[in-house]
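Quick log. Single chain, no ligands specified.
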Amino acid sequence: MTRELELNPKPAPSGQSGVLTFFAERISYDRVTAPQYVVRILREAIVTGAFSSGKALNQDRIARELNTSKIPVREALRELEGQGLVYFVPNRGFVVKETSYAEMIECFKLRQMLELFAVRESVPLSTPEHVARIEAIIDEFETVTDPMVSSHWNLKLHLALYAPTGMEHLQEMITRAHTVAHRYTHIYMRLTQDEAETQDEHRAILAAYRQKDVDLAVRLMEAHIGVACERFAAFLKDHLS
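-> predicted structure:
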């Protein structure tokens, strides 16, 4: 049975510092279930590298820091397993999945296939209200200066772009590919000290949505994803091999 939180979940008390508390205090949740709350925080900890490859995830410790029970933690870890971020090891529990060059290339290729299809489907269905919502997210994204929470906002923005399709399975597939690909974005940023991306490309894509120019929106999204993949591939090939 799904357990709804009556209020937005609260992070662990301020005296109990930790990685998960860091993310709990910095990303938005809206109205979510307890497992969804845990998923979002653990996902950010893994994607950003705060939880490194091969790290064993102690369910009791996670539950204590997030001020919740073990049941939503267990459900969250199963969902993260489905997203390709963790795997289960007998007698050890859930472990953060290792990164690889092949996985990075695969996820960016999947992003291109899925997201270009999503753009083609969503642009004709977009409305002025939808465009306004996207613009508001981009404006909020401009205020995000901490690269440790940039992936949360980036995924939120991309999923909002494709919301007009109403295709839940498509959004789930995009979420998985986008999430795993962002692990490599953060590896690149850590090694190069580059800052999180600007929103100029997102604003150009939004302008194409506003004009209902499907071909332009597709070309801009293809370049947006493709350039990042090429840059990361060239820099990370030796590091990830």
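The chain has a mean pLDDT of 87.
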